[in-house]
Design a protein that fits this description.
Radius of gyration: 31 Å
Order of helices and strands: HHHHHHHHHHHHHHEHHEEHHH
Distance between the termini: 92 Å
Shape: elongated
Number of helices: 19
Number of strands: 3
Number of domains: 2
Oligomer: single chain
Strand order of the largest sheet: 1-3-2
CATH class of the largest domain: Mainly Alpha
CATH architecture of the largest domain: Orthogonal Bundle
Largest sheet: 3 strands, antiparallel
């Protein structure tokens, strides 16, 4: 009994901390939560355009590039003044953005190679400065290590003012230029031909990304900042194709993951916020990758299986219909199996699905169609004939090449397409 007491105490303490966090009764929790909210809004909004423009490595490059600016901003006053640190980080990020563009224009290197060079160079300089800061008397208490993996609990009210102002700039510009950004992201060539300033938008997007990186480093750290830009947007793109919905979902995924990661780090002061936020994002992405209604792997497998079962049972239904065309009242299961070149067990398995739908009845070894089954079989046969005629008349396929295509298409022809085919052939005969 006494062996279980520490565990119970630990679980009780964790539950108390959990309730305390989600009640938002602490000022520090309110500040950190608001900071994560601002981060999710800015990163989620921009990330959609970064992913669409295939600039995912840009966030990682700028995330590592701000480290020298953070260190220089600290050295100005030898303390973590948010205005100096943010200013240094912004200068460093904008310098990295300009350097990436300059090297791309004046060399034959590809974008990924240029970003990798800038990333490693700036991060090397930043690491050297950070190591030197740790050796000066005030450096051990600088807290700059929190910028590597993030510590949202260290966000102050002064930090919130800076983050809020920068987030307002990002959201305001994206809303004002939303149509132009969408057009340039999907088709840069077409956007340029109709007068959209594509190059200006490109550099504006790089600048806004630099600002978003500066907002994110305090909460998730510069090592993981690219995940906050890319993962929510990539997850949202698996959920929908409408750009406004993608942006909204990206922000919501970021908010959810940020709050979950923040709540976990609140349970123990030794838990950094950034890794738990990114881990939650990865789990959300994995869930959407598997179960997204349209693009999920599992969802598509389920749809394919259902379509395969539907095709199988409707083909058996049509085979029964054709067998009864000679005025027979029923057809034997063994005869049906021979006709379809399947085993009787397979036919019985498929026939049970027809019975559940009320399309057929089985009396002993005799298979019969109900009125509903007869109507569905006639619809399938009509759809097959319409599509077969379309392939032969419109595409000029030989009749012996149309059977397989018609067999596959007849199960998915909608009412509107059937009416259109009927109207086309009626006009031709008239």
């Amino acid at each position: 009994m006494f062996l279980h007491f520490p565990l119970v105490l630990m679980e009780s303490n964790a539950w108390t901390q959990f309730v305390r966090f989600w009640s938002f009764q602490d000022r520090a929790v309110q500040t950190a939560a608001l900071g994560v909210l601002l981060l999710a809004i800015s990163s989620g909004t921009l990330g959609c355009f970064i992913v669409l423009r295939r600039m995912s490595l840009l966030g990682d490059s700028l995330g590592h590039a701000v480290l020298p600016g953070v260190c220089i901003g600290y050295l100005v006053q030898l303390r973590k003044d948010p205005w100096w640190i943010v200013s240094g980080a912004l200068v460093s990020a904008f310098l990295a953005s300009w350097l990436i563009g300059f090297i791309r224009r004046h060399t034959r290197l590809k974008s990924d190679a240029v970003m990798g060079l800038v990333l490693s160079g700036f991060y090397g300089v930043g690491t050297m400065l950070l190591t030197w800061i740790q050796r000066i008397p005030a450096g051990n208490q600088s807290g700059l290590n929190g910028f590597l993996f993030g510590q949202a609990s260290a966000i102050s009210e002064r930090d919130l003012y800076v983050m809020g102002a920068l987030s307002l700039v990002i959201v305001g510009l994206v809303m004002a230029l939303f149509k132009e950004l969408v057009l340039a992201s999907f088709d840069e060539g077409f956007a340029s031909t109709i007068g959209v300033p594509v190059r200006t938008l490109h550099y504006l997007l790089m600048g806004l990304t630099a600002i978003a990186v500066v907002i994110a480093i305090q909460a998730v750290g510069l090592v993981l900042v690219s995940a906050m830009l890319i993962t929510p947007a990539a997850t949202a793109l698996l959920a929908t194709d409408r750009m406004r919905s993608v942006v909204i979902l990206s922000v919501l995924f970021g908010v959810f993951s940020g709050m979950v990661g923040l709540s976990v780090s609140f349970l123990n002061s030794h838990y950094p916020t950034g890794p738990f936020v990114v881990l939650t994002l990865a789990l959300v992405f994995a869930g959407m990758y598997l179960f997204s209604p349209r693009y999920g792997v599992a969802s598509r497998a389920i749809r394919r299986r259902r379509q395969s079962q539907r095709t199988q049972r409707e083909n058996v239904l049509k085979s029964i219909y054709h067998s009864l065309a000679g005025c027979a009242n029923a057809v034997k299961i063994n005869e049906l199996a021979t006709l379809r070149q399947e085993t009787p067990a397979e036919i019985r398995s498929t026939f049970s699905m027809l019975m559940r739908r009320g399309w057929a009845q089985l009396e002993g070894d005799q298979a019969r169609l109900t009125d509903a089954g007869l109507r569905r079989a006639q619809e399938l046969d009509r759809n097959y004939r319409l599509w077969e005629q379309f392939l032969t008349d419109e595409i000029n396929l030989p009749i012996d090449h149309t059977q397989r295509d018609a067999e596959n298409i007849e199960h998915i022809l909608g009412p509107e397409l059937v009416r259109e085919l009927e109207a086309r052939f009626e006009q031709r005969h008239d």
